[in-house]
From TrEMBL:
Top-level taxon of the source organism: Bacteria
Reaction(s) the record says it catalyses: L-valine + NAD(+) + H2O = 3-methyl-2-oxobutanoate + NH4(+) + NADH + H(+)
Main localization (coarse): cytoplasm
Name used for this protein in its record: Valine dehydrogenase
Location of this chain's protein in the cell: Cytoplasm
UniProt pathway: Amino-acid degradation; L-valine degradation
Parts of the chain that traverse the membrane: none
Organism: Streptomyces sanyensis
Pfam family, one: ELFV_dehydrog
């Protein structure tokens, strides 16, 4: 992106974006690559976060998403106890139309040019096979296939961590971590959501699902006829008797339109940046809805890809991901003690850990 528009510059320097250390605008004309790499913090170690491949409406939207996601990764990695700061990359375009081996290699070279300040992995629109290609252009890549020295699909532990956060929410609100008989609505049953549904069914929860991709819904319902599918998110969030709402698609799921009509008592899902804007966390609390902070409960995947950098061990990672249960409970306790919403409590804990790291 050699021509940086005023809109992009405005997005980069908006104070509410959170004081990022570095933002790199990448362009390779030969392959059509246009990407943004955002490094929010390296206080705890090299920035770690995935690469999102998405058809953004504008460069400004792409930059804003990269900045928000990178900041979220700083908090996620801090709360997960990892020795990594936060970063994120976005590639602009429809992956089904423009993704190519040459484009991914070009992107890998941009990652490599940062000398290890940023370590990338999978995200929306990118997969393990893509990281294998990116890794041919850079050593600072994780989330690769087992055949190429990696850990494979991180969705398994992401879903497991969300499940642990959901159990902690049940413990806090109802005095019992069991989800048996609870009605759980899952929006987005792709990479992570379908694994989450499996955990819920194993515990005999009542599951309601929806997804913009009909094939994803069909796969679940054909395998598990007891699952109820509804037409869209609006229908799901208004479902009578819903105990838990699990947003597992894109961000912004909790906003001025959805929160007032949400019937669930708990929100706990895998999507990043679920709160559309500041103040939504208070709106949830005012309605008596318990919110499990997204970057805390969905940290299972980043735990896995971080472990891969030092020699992957699934059992070790699963033990660490299981601690999301205790971490979530600790956040609820801190929120009650400080008289603030859980999202604010999680932020305080993460910010304290980053500040202590900066001080040495």
């Amino acid at each position: 992106m050699t021509d940086v528009t005023d809109g992009v510059l405005h997005t980069l320097f908006r104070s509410e974006q959170g004081g990022h250390e570095q933002v790199v605008l990448c362009q390779d004309r030969a392959t059509g690559l246009r990407a943004v790499i955002a490094i929010h913090s390296t206080a705890l170690g090299p920035a770690l976060g995935g690469t999102r491949f998405y058809p953004y409406a504008s460069e400004e939207d792409a930059v804003a998403d990269a900045l928000n996601l990178a900041r979220g990764m700083s908090y996620k990695n801090a709360m997960a106890g990892l020795r990594h700061g936060g970063g994120k990359a976005v590639i602009i375009g429809d992956p089904e139309q423009i993704k190519s081996e040459d484009l991914l290699l070009a992107y890998g070279r941009f990652v490599d040019s940062l000398g290890g300040r940023y370590v990338t992995a999978c995200d929306v629109g990118t997969f393990v096979a893509d990281m294998d290609v990116v890794a041919r252009g850079s050593r600072w890549v994780t989330g690769r296939s087992p055949e190429n020295g990696g850990a494979g699909d991180s969705s398994v532990l992401t879903a497991f961590g969300v499940y642990q956060g959901m159990r902690a929410s049940a413990q806090h609100l109802w005095g019992d971590p069991s989800l048996r008989g609870r009605k759980v609505g899952v929006v987005g049953v792709g990479k992570v959501g379908h694994y989450l549904v499996q955990h819920l069914l194993e515990e005999r929860a009542e599951v309601v699902i929806t997804d913009v991709r009909e094939e994803s819904v069909r796969r679940i319902v054909e395998a598990h006829p007891e699952v109820t599918a509804v037409a869209d998110t609006e229908t799901l969030i208004r479902t009578e008797g819903l105990d838990v709402y699990a947003p597992c698609a894109l961000g912004g799921a909790l906003n001025d339109d959805t929160v007032p009509v949400l019937t669930a008592s708990v929100v706990c899902g895998a999507a990043n940046n679920q709160l559309a804007h500041q103040g939504v966390e208070k709106d949830l609390a005012d309605r008596g809805i318990l919110y499990a902070p997204d970057y805390v409960v969905n940290a299972g995947g980043v735990i896995q890809v971080a472990d891969e950098l030092n020699g992957f061990d699934f059992d070790r990672c699963k033990i660490q991901a299981a601690r999301i249960f205790d971490t979530t409970l600790a956040i609820f306790a801190r929120a009650k003690e400080d008289g603030i919403p859980p999202a604010a409590a999680a932020d305080r804990i993460a910010e304290q850990r980053m500040a202590e790291a900066r001080q040495g």
